[in-house]
Amino acid sequence: MALNYHDCIGRHMFWFQNGIRSLNKGRFRGKPVRLIDSAEKARERALAYWPVKVVTEGQYAIELRRWPVELDRPIHSDLPPGAPVYGEKSHRADPGVGFAAVKATLTIGDRELTAPVDGQMKAAVFQTELTPGPQRLSARFYDAEGRSLDAFYVYVSKSDGHSEVRSVPKTANPIEEESDGITCYHDFQGLEANEFSFDPIVTKFVRIVIHDSIKSRPPCIDELEIFKFGANGNLAVKYGLPSASSSLGGYEKHRIEHLNDGKYGNLHSWICGEKTGWCQIELTKRIKIDRVVLSRDRGGRLEDRSPLSFDIQVSEDGKDWKTVKEIRPANNPSTEKVGSKRRSSKKRSRP
Length: 351
Hints:
Blueprint: E1 2-4, H1 17-22, E2 27-28, E3 31-32, E4 36-37, H2 39-44, E5 50-54, E6 58-65, E7 101-108, E8 111-116, E9 124-130, E10 133-143, E11 148-150, E12 153-158, E13 165-167, E14 183-185, E15 194-213, E16 220-221, E17 223-228, H3 235-239, E18 240-244, E19 270-271, E20 277-295, E21 307-315, E22 322-328
Parallel strand pairs: 14-22
Antiparallel strand pairs: 1-12, 2-3, 4-11, 5-10, 5-13, 6-9, 6-12, 7-8, 7-10, 10-11, 15-20, 15-21, 16-19, 17-20, 18-20, 21-22
């Protein structure tokens, strides 16, 4: 099983690869975000973690990496800028920055393990016995000055070569039904971009089928973005025709065409005319895609109406649909308290 930093819980994560590559570049709500913690901050900050479920008891190998395994690069290693993409700056245009780790730590359940790291190592590998049940897995690198960096990529495998660990919700009651690999437990962040990746697939239509939203109100999406496999340009804004099951009437700012107008915020959004429904983008031709990005109000104001439970579906003809990702809330949030940690209770919801 492969875990990446985009699915980690516990701090503001980078959703784009330029942040993962350059470490200290990025902003969140106008404030600079740092991925490297000072020695003091490293001691103070709670560990970020992945919620996982161990299915089968046994001996496991857990690899902590700075770079994904397919790059085959040392933890300390820098990366040169990638090739440019026509028309806009790509995320890979930023050079990659290595981290001069001297040790790595792994925490899973009640186990805390440490391993030395040198300049040639591509991964810190831990061998440990795991027992069945839900666990929290945290992974960090430390340099000689005590500064820390969360491991961006973690690979888990059983000693027989078959992964018997899988991602689970953040709650103490993980889903017990079988997983076919498409279910994603994610608390939708209404004020941010939410990226959902899936196996590359050729399609002409991309549909979001929404089953539930905050307070079960008609859901809202300010932008539906679609990305070609291996590229960064948003196909929806360039080549997409939007449509939906219904649309809230009486508001010029909430129209179907706002789904892919390239503008973020509540003033340029779509609201469904009912409590559940779907919206979709029809591309001009069949294209291989591998991810979708959604947001409710990337302008940073409103979180009400954010989708909670929805499916991402694709189709080549607009008739036969295949579900490529099922998104379900990880925390089963209370409809009365959603958003209360981030926004004043005095802020009222509005269309």
